[in-house]
Amino acid sequence: MAAKRGGARSNRSQRPGQPPRPAGEPPLSRQRIVATAVELLDAQGIDGLTMRRLADRLGSGVMSLYWHVDSKEDVFDLALDAVLEYRGSPQEPQSEDWRGEIVHILEDWRASMLSHSWSASLLPRRALGPNILSRLELLSKALSRAGVADADINAAIWSLWNYVMGATITRASFDLSDDDRAAAQQRLTHLSERYATIERSRLLLDDDWDGAFRKGLGFLLDGLAPG
Amino acid sequence: MAAKRGGARSNRSQRPGQPPRPAGEPPLSRQRIVATAVELLDAQGIDGLTMRRLADRLGSGVMSLYWHVDSKEDVFDLALDAVLEYRGSPQEPQSEDWRGEIVHILEDWRASMLSHSWSASLLPRRALGPNILSRLELLSKALSRAGVADADINAAIWSLWNYVMGATITRASFDLSDDDRAAAQQRLTHLSERYATIERSRLLLDDDWDGAFRKGLGFLLDGLAPG
DNA sequence: ACCTGAACACCGTTCAAGT
DNA sequence: ACCTGAACACCGTTCAAGT
C-alpha cells in the first residue's frame, strides 16, 4: 500500500508537460496560496480544489500549506474574499445620479462573482471578509446620499444584498446547464396542465439574464426610494 | 487492512443504543432513501450526508443505494425538492388581497427552506424539481391576478425568486454563527475609519431577520406593482 | 520559523458476483 | 429485479520529525 501511494504521488508531481519547479520557486505564503487557489478554482471548479492539488501547483508538500492556513475551509474563505476586491476608483465622481451609482456598485459586484462562477456557490457557507465589508460600506454610503432614511438603511442594504446574491447564485447555477434548462422546459410542455402559466411565459427559456437583473433591480429601487 | 475495514463497519452498524434492524425492515426504495437522507441532513448538516451513513441508517449495504439512485448528487437533488413540497390548500380562498397572497407564498417558501437549513446551501448547485416548479407556477398565477403585465411577469418572478433565495441563504448561513457576527461587528468597530457607516448603523448586529425580510419584500412589491 | 512524509480515518463509485 | 463485498482511487488532517 505504501508503494502504491508513492506511485500515485509521483504521477501527480510529474504531470505531463509540467517540468519540476525550478529551485528558485518563491517561498510559500498565505498570499501565494490564495492566488493559486483562485486559479485552481477558476480552472477546475469547486470540487477541483483539493489541498493535495493545491500543494502540487505550489510545488510544495501538502502539509506545508497548514503552516500558513488553518484548514481547507479557511482557503475557501480567503479565495472568496480575494475575488471580491473592489477595483473602482476610490474617489467616485460624486455624481448627482445616485441611482446610477447604486446600479453600478451592484452590477460590478455581480460581475465580479460571475467571472469566478464558483464564488456564488461558496457564499452560503461563509463569513464576511474585508472586501465584502468594503462593498457594503460603499453601498451604505450611496444609499445615505440618495436620501434613504436612516431607519430604512439596513433593510435597504439587506434587500439589495439578497437580490444580488440570489440573482448571482441563480445565474451561476443555471449557466452550467443550458441543456438542463431546455430539458426542463420540455418537461413543462409535457405536463402542461400542471404548469400552464410558466410554460406559456417560457420562464425557463428566457435567457436575457443581464436584462432581467437590471429590470428587477429597477423594481426594487423604485420601491426603496420612490420619486 | 481488510480486517480493519471490517472492524470499522461493525462499529458503525452497532451504534450504541441502536439495535440491529428487525428482519421485517421494509425494502429499499427511492422514497425511503430520500426521506432518510432528509433526516440525516436535518441531524448532521450537509457534510453529514454520506452514502455510507445513509446506507447504515437504512440497514442496507452502501452499494444497494445505487440501484435506486444515480449518485450522491442525485440524492441531494431529491432531498432538496422533497423539502419544498407545498402544503398550502390547493384551492386558495381566492381573496382580493393579491399582495397578501404573494407575501404568503414567499414567506412559506422561505420558512420551508429555513426549517431545513441545509437546503439553502444546496440551492446554488442544482436543478428545478417538480415542487419548485409548482411554487413558481403558483407565484406566476398570483402575479397575473395582481395585474402585473405579461411582459413583466418573468422579470417579476425572477426578482422575487432572487430576493427570497438571497434572503434565505443569507439567513441560513448567518444563523450558524452568532458569535462570528458579534466578532465581525467587533472588528468593524476596531477599524471604524474604514467601515464607519455600516458600523454606525450596526448592520451586522441587526437580527430581526423576519422583519427585514418582510420590509424588503414590501419595497420590492411596491416597485413591482405600484398603486 | 518553516517544511516534510507517513499514517489515520474516512470518502464516492466500479465491478463482478450473488439471490 | 434487487442487493452485496471487495477494491480503487482518492480525500482532509494529526503527528512526530526534520532543517
Automatic annotation (TrEMBL), chains A, B:
Annotated PROSITE patterns: HTH_TETR_2
Region (Disordered): 1-29
Residue ranges constituting the HTH tetR-type domain according to the UniProt record: 27-87
Entry keyword annotation includes DNA-binding: yes
Keywords carried by this UniProt record: DNA-binding, Repressor, Transcription, Transcription regulation
UniProt keyword Transmembrane, yes or no: no
Ranges that cross the membrane: none
InterPro entries recorded: Homeodomain-like_sf, HTH-type_TetR-like_transc_reg, HTH_TetR, Repressor_TetR_C, Tet_transcr_reg_TetR, Tet_transcr_reg_TetR-rel_C_sf
Regions recorded as binding DNA: 50-69
Domain of life of the organism encoding this protein: Bacteria
Role description: TetR is the repressor of the tetracycline resistance element; its N-terminal region forms a helix-turn-helix structure and binds DNA. Binding of tetracycline to TetR reduces the repressor affinity for the tetracycline resistance gene (tetA) promoter operator sites.
Protein name: TetR/AcrR family transcriptional regulator C-terminal domain-containing protein
